[in-house]
Hints:
alpha/beta, 8-stranded parallel beta sheet, 8 strands, globular
Amino acid sequence: xxxxxxxxxxxxxxxxxxxxxxxxxxxxxxxxxxxxxxxxxxxxxxxxxxxxxxxxxxxxxxxxxxxxxxxxxxxxxxxxxxxxxxxxxxxxxxxxxxxxxxxxxxxxxxxxxxxxxxxxxxxxxxxxxxxxxxxxxxxxxxxxxxxxxxxxxxxxxxxxxxxxxxxxxxxxxxxxxxxxxxxxxxxxxxxxxxxxxxxxxxxxxxxxxxxxxxxxxxxxxxxxxxxxxxxxxxxxxxxxxxxxxxxxxxxxxxxxxxxxxxxxxxxxxxxxxxxxxxxxxxxxxxxxxxxxxxxxxxxxxxxxxxxxxxxxxxxxxxxxxxxxxxxxxxxxxxxxxxxxxxxxxxxxxxxxxxxx
Length: 356
């Protein structure tokens, strides 16, 4: 497991190494056409690389065009429950937050699917839940996947961490992909942000804003290389969600990543790995999403609702977090086309699924 490897990597020494990178280290990393290692990645995200943002942007654009062309894969998230047993201090679904808890019924889920299809020709669906396996566990998720198959070609989930056999079971219900955020790799401080619930178990679980972002994303780079080495047949995607206000209010990010730093990280990741999918959600503004769509981002969500039933059943329910890009999906498509990008609504078909 990567958690075993992580034990061998010092958070403090990694932070020190990043901030000790020099101009020569950055130029050396930029001079490599491929096979960059994590040491090179650290140089590219370091303060020493800030004078090279334009050079990094051009390289990021070049490698993205070579691997992905001008395409932007479009997806939509659907929250099917906000019921959660965790106490994550930064999250609107915090168990102590006085909000109405909703677990969508089968009829409500189908209504949400139909409402999404009226927004735009979405084929890539991400099902999202809180973490309450007793009330909305694997059987509930499996049923939601079954109900989605007539409406969507590609089904992914962002739910509580599951056992290998549970993921395998969900593949029989149409599951194609899994998203899991490691909110911070700083094990020493992880419990502070996740005091109770399933998510308090570090080994079971990057949200930018909790800890020093450069160190956290370096751990992500180590994690990516580990996964690619051990599970080389799999496609990988990364996302850099910056913390936004949540409905439980009060908690303020410990670290603020500005737009230039987000751009630097995006360019660095693309230069580090030419093939990885880089996704921007509606957490980011329309302006930065438009800009980065031409420079390294390859997947975007659009017209996202972060509350269960937000597309049809319960549009006034409290959100997990506020979105920043509030454009309609058709407006996102229009703006991407103006930029010379090609929004792709469907990049998978159920006929591609091998028999399991």
